[in-house]
Amino acid sequence: MTEKLDFRPERVDIYVAAGDSVSFTIRMRDPTALPGPTWSAQVRDLAGANVQDFTITPLSDGAQVVLPPDATRSLANLASGQTVGTVGSSAFREVWRGKYDVQVVYGGGLVRTLINGMFSVSDDVTR
To answer: Is 10-122 assigned to CATH 3.40.630.30?
Structure first.
């Protein structure tokens, strides 16, 4: 049997309505295993330009990752066109699409991207 080490990040796509918050918590299996984590998370357009930074609050066992409503609204304002798509069985009008990731750097320089995926913003009605 061949053993494998897989260091790829977990793929988690995010779908959000313009003007809504994005908030999730990342929990570490053993938060004391490596010292001094520094967290970062960004949303980039498909060409790779940074368009938003998440706000990160370190926790004793991970981090809270947040993108406020004004940030998702500003991503929708970047849209040059609109496409119609589906998420599961729900139809939505996607107005902006990019990519994101969440990364942690430990003391000593060890870098690990924990999650990444596509970041899609749909239109919103209620303001």
So the answer is: no
